[in-house]
């Protein structure tokens, strides 16, 4: 049996305005850290309307699109880039189903959210979109490539 090759990928994770307003930033970041992924970009950011529209352009024709843009631009979001083996699909699992009422307990949405229109976090749905979204939300110099070191930080 040949195990499926899973590669190091990058994904764009965003804590939506409700997550920031409800004080869930630390809790959400912590879940990705504890899983074992590597944070390579992080900022608090008030998203302009044009950027929200570009990010969600595939949903342009949906009836909820204007409400979605109002929601995402209603307050600051936390933009994050995460790296790791299989991080795209794994992050989607950690996040849970789009409708939080269908999200399993133990997932971020399953534990922390109730409404689809207030589902606290976004995660890229493919490695291609991970790259596209990181490039859309971050400037090159805001991203940090780093490797863990063995330094005994605490003695
Ligand atoms: P996301 O992109 O935010 O990670 O969410 P997703 O892939 O799980 O869901 P998607 O279908 O791409 O929808 C993007 C976001 O739009 C909002 N939405 N509202 N019926 C509705 O009112 C509705 N449907 C979707 C949600 O915030 C969803 O996360």
TrEMBL record:
Catalytic residues as annotated in Swiss-Prot or TrEMBL: 122
Cofactor(s) annotated in UniProt: Mg(2+)
EC nos: 2.7.4.6
Keywords: ATP-binding, Kinase, Nucleotide-binding, Transferase
Residue span, Nucleoside diphosphate kinase-like domain: 8-145
EC category name: transferase
Residues reported in the UniProt entry to bind ATP: 16, 64, 92, 98, 109, 119
Catalytic activity: a 2'-deoxyribonucleoside 5'-diphosphate + ATP = a 2'-deoxyribonucleoside 5'-triphosphate + ADP; a ribonucleoside 5'-diphosphate + ATP = a ribonucleoside 5'-triphosphate + ADP
Similarity field: Belongs to the NDK family.
Functional note: Major role in the synthesis of nucleoside triphosphates other than ATP. The ATP gamma phosphate is transferred to the NDP beta phosphate via a ping-pong mechanism, using a phosphorylated active-site intermediate.
Name the record gives this protein: Nucleoside diphosphate kinase
Species this chain originates from: Rehmannia glutinosa (Chinese foxglove)
């Amino acid at each position: 049996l040949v195990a499926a090759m899973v590669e190091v990928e990058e994904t764009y994770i965003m804590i939506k305005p409700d997550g920031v307003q409800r004080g869930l930033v630390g809790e959400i970041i912590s879940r990705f850290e504890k899983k074992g992924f590597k944070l390579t970009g992080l900022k608090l950011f008030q998203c302009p309307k044009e950027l929200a529209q570009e990010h969600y352009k595939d949903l342009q024709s949906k009836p909820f699109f204007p409400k979605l843009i109002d929601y995402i631009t209603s307050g600051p979001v936390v933009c994050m880039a995460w790296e790791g083996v299989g991080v795209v699909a794994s992050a989607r699992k950690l996040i849970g189903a789009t409708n939080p009422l269908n999200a399993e307990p133990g997932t971020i949405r399953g534990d922390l959210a109730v409404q689809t229109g207030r589902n606290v976090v976004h995660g890229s749905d493919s490695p291609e979109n991970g790259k596209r979204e990181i490039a859309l939300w971050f400037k090159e110099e805001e991203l940090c490539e780093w490797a863990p070191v063995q330094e005994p930080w605490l003695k």
